[in-house]
Give the backbone structure.
Amino acid sequence: MNLIGRDFLTLRDFTPEEILYLVDLAADYKKKKQQHVLVDTLRGRNVALIFEKTSTRTRCSFEIAAHDLGMGTTYLDPKSSQIGKKESTADTARVLSSMFDGIEYRGFGQERVEELAKYSDVPVWNGLTNEYHPTQMLADLLTIREVFGDHKGLKLAYFGDARYNTGNSLMILCTKMGMHFAAAAPKSYFPDPALVETCREYGKESGGTVLLTEDAAEAAKDADILYTDVWVSMGEPDEIWEQRIRELSPYKVTKELMDKAKPTAIFLHCLPAFHDLKTEIGKEKGEQFGISEMEVTDEVFEGPQSKVFQEAENRMHTIKAVMAATLGA
């Protein structure tokens, strides 16, 4: 499988065989990491990490993965980069690709990372945009395969706001890989109909399916994986918090909802999670809205079916695989 020079912007650009290749490569890197086997085959290379949206897991995953491969990293936070402010995206791409061997972007619209890739001479990797979150999907698939041994035919049920990066990308992943995707949400939170139709076309080839429902119990029935994400992005106004809490609370992942899935079902979350009041934001919003959790209960998050920290670790191994495969390690 030759992915050298390829951008990694969305799983829509990759075949099921290429996706599985990256996951298998990540599993091999994970094994080597556990055995303390050096894999620094990209010594002398350097990558730029552009973060218009900050992140714990994505930044650490890219920096550790790059270090393990022998590469240097330059982190550009929202205050350090002039992309889109004093310098156009196209000019930024041309400057950085003359200095670096790869460019990661985490930020807002998908058009920004697409434009970076258009004008860059080196691979560009999507660390997250409003529309897609492809590196997270590889980590999810690796986790699912570690738990179940395979992924084919499994049912993944997503609860909450299914309109954006995580919901979109899970639907693409499942239908490309022969899995059954269910999203439970109010109709106004359903994914874009055009993307739903595209994913149903993927499913015709793989055997995967798409179910959109307003009934959380229907989505959870016989599911192998229950998945959710935060309902509100940091910085959004109070009226958005109030609306999301009111409209999405019926889709909170609880022990009762988990019990409607298969006994072997697992819980996944791309993190961070609002499952208690042990953060500044959690405490503030808890007092403001009279809640102790949002998208998932602490009982589920900390329970035996939760694989969220295994999933979080796998971000690093799968990102390492993406960089290695596209840079030719």
Remarks:
- The chain has a mean pLDDT of 96.
- The longest strand covers residues 46-51.
- The CA atoms of residues 222 and 261 lie 5 Å apart.
